[in-house]
Amino acid sequence: MAGTLWLVGTPIGNLGDLGDRARETLARVDVIAAEDTRRTGRLLRSAGITDRPALVSYFEGNERERTPELVERLREGADVALVTDGGMPGVSDPGYRLVRACVEAGIDIRVVPGPSAVLAALVLSGLPTDRFAFEGFLPRRRGDRQRRLEALRPEDRTLVLFESPRRVEALLRDVGETLGDRRIAVARELTKLHEEVRRGRVSEVLAALDPDAPLKGEVVVVIEGATGPGVVDLEGCVAEARDLVASGMRKREAAHAVAEHRGVAANEVYRGLLDADPARSARAGRNAGGTSL
C-alpha cells in the first residue's frame, strides 16, 4: 500500500506556533522533505522530537530531480512530510511539483494547516480582508515589475506581495507611480521578536524609511485595491499638471506632484501631459506624413 504525503505548515518565525497535530505528524512520518534540513532539524529539536525521521532536502534547486525520488518512496509505502522554512508548502515555496506528481500517481495527500505570512500580514494590515489576491514575488526587473503592476491597477481586491527587504523601497516607488498613493502596510519579521508593521499611504511609508537603517528579515507588502467606480478625472489631473509645467516645473515632477495629492498613478498623468503636448503631436504628424504619398 502506498504511503501518504503530508503537507505540514510550520512556524514563520516563532517556534511556539507549531501545533500539536503538526508535531505529531512530523514525529511519526518516515521521511521529512525540507527546504532547509538544518532549519528543520532545529525545529524538530525545539519540538522535542529526538527520534527524528530521515531528513532529505527539497528546495528550488533540486525540486525537479527530487520529486520522482519522493514519489517512489511514497509508492513503496513510506509516509512523507513536506515542510518549508516557514508557512505552507507550495505558497511561493517548493511543493507544487510534488503535489502535482502525487495527484497524477494517485497517492493520498493530506494537509496539516499552519501559520501563513500571507494571512498574518493581511489581517494586521488594517485593509479590507473579505477579498484579496496573492501575487507572491513580483518580477525583479523594474520594467517587468511595472508592467505587472499596471496589469493589477484595476484590481479592486486587496493585494498581498512578498518582497526582499533590499527591494522594498524600489517596489513602493513603482507602486506609487503605477497604482497611485494607495494605503499600504509593510510587515516584516512577523511573529518574531522585532515584528513591525508600517501602515499609511505609499508616500508616507516611503518617507518613513530610513536609508541608514535598511529593512531586514522577510517582508510582506499589503496594498489597498482599486477603489470607487474606477473612473478617474484624468483630464482634470492633466490640466492641473499642465499648469504646474507652465509655472516652470518639469513634466515628470508635475505628474508626481498631482498624483501624490489626487491619489492617481503618476504614469497616467505623465502620459496625458505627453499626449497633450502640441510640439509632440506636431512631430508625430510630420513623422506620419513623411511615410505617405
What is the element layout, followed by pairings?
Elements: E1 4-8, H1 20-28, E2 31-34, H2 37-46, E3 54-57, H3 63-75, E4 80-83, H4 96-105, E5 108-112, H5 117-125, E6 132-137, H6 142-152, E7 158-163, H7 168-179, E8 183-188, E9 196-201, H8 202-208, E10 219-223, H9 234-246, H10 251-262, H11 266-275, H12 278-289
Helix pairs in contact: 3-4, 6-7, 7-8, 9-10, 9-11, 10-11
How does this structure look, described?
The model is unreliable at 288-293 (pLDDT under 50). The protein is 44% helix and 17% strand. It folds into three domains: 4-115, Tetrapyrrole methylase, N-terminal domain (Cobalt-precorrin-4 Transmethylase, domain 1, 3-Layer(aba) Sandwich); 118-223, Methyltransferase, Cobalt-precorrin-4 Transmethylase, Domain 2 (2-Layer Sandwich), CATH 3.30.950.10; 234-278. Helix 3 (63-75) runs parallel beside helix 4 (96-105) and helix 9 crosses helix 10 (251-262). The longest helix has 13 residues, at 63-75. It has twelve helices and ten strands.
What share of residues are in beta strands? Answer: 15-25%
| C-alpha termini separation | 78 Å
**Beta-strand segment tally:** 10
Question: Do you know the CATH topology of the largest domain?
Answer: Cobalt-precorrin-4 Transmethylase, domain 1
> What is the level 1 CATH name of the largest domain?
Alpha Beta
Spatial arrangement of strands, main beta sheet: 3-2-4-1-5
Number of domains: 3
Summed over residues and divided by their number, the pLDDT gives a mean of: 90
CATH superfamily of the largest domain: Tetrapyrrole methylase, N-terminal domain
In CATH, the architecture of the largest domain is: 3-Layer(aba) Sandwich
List low-pLDDT spans: 288-293
- Helix-strand string: EHEHEHEHEHEHEHEEHEHHHH
Q: How many DSSP H or I helices? A: 12
How would a crystallographer describe the biggest sheet? 5 strands, parallel
- Approximate shape: elongated
Structural class: alpha/beta
Helix content bin? 40-55%
What's the Cα radius of gyration?
25 Å
